[in-house]
Amino acid sequence: MRKPFIGGNWKMNTDSKSAVELAKGVAEKCASYLSKVDVAVCPPFVYLPAAKAALGNSAVGLGAQDVYFEAKGAFTGEVSCGMLKDVGCKYVIIGHSERRHVIKETDALINKKLTAAIDAGLLPIFCVGELLEERNAGKTEAVVTEQIQKGMAGISAEKAKTVVIAYEPVWAIGTGVNASPEQAQDVHFMIRQLIAKMYNKDLADNMVIQYGGSAKPDNAAVLMAKPDIDGLLVGGASLKADDFAAMIKAAAEAK
Length: 255
Ligand code: 13P
Known about the structure:
Elements: E1 5-9, H1 16-29, E2 38-42, H2 48-55, E3 61-64, H3 81-86, E4 91-94, H4 97-101, H5 107-120, E5 123-128, H6 132-136, H7 140-151, H8 157-160, E6 164-167, H9 181-198, H10 201-206, E7 209-212, H11 217-224, E8 231-234, H12 241-254
Parallel strand pairs: 1-2, 1-8, 2-3, 3-4, 4-5, 5-6, 6-7, 7-8
Helix pairs in contact: 1-2, 1-12, 7-9, 11-12
Bound molecules: 1,3-dihydroxyacetonephosphate.
1,3-dihydroxyacetonephosphate binds next to strand 8.
């Protein structure tokens, strides 16, 4: 069975003091749910080592919000998979909509990052999702399918086993308007069928697919109640340990 997985994407928030407090708070408040739910926090790069220390012996995983695909060298401003592992990261978010749409990352670049992360032994959280105009034009399935096919091109079934997909409709991110549980379930089901077609049913049945986009304590339970929603990738609500812990509790109780 798939273990629920709740990730906190802190984005470009916190500072050295609040990052440590938040990591500590998450570790404390979610300790009793960790046997039922996998949990990760993803601070900005510069706070990763401090957050790791603050997590201590907790089973809460540390994740980065991005990575570069090259191992080392003249790539000013970039951070490698090896560096992330060196500071204790287990997870890395790849292809987040803010990187696709603000930083203009392409599917080809995302594919290189995903491949490098898997090869390095990091667990990637691979984000996909449509824009509002794409949804309104009836293109959600086509857009998400293309992002997954291009993003996972050349990645074998064996390697794909470690991938978590996060479905994050762009119109729901940071807007307060979450996809309805039914809208999210429809896309999650479609993604699972696509993975079965691209790889095999066993891999699809075991793949963890998170929903992201204005997930909050008050909608976590109804989202998590859907059969193909295995977890949440949380932005704003992950910045308050109490809210994030409430969502982890909802996930533990829903499955
Ligand atoms: P919000 O939860 O703030 O909408 O952000 C979602 C997200 O982008 C998580 O990666």
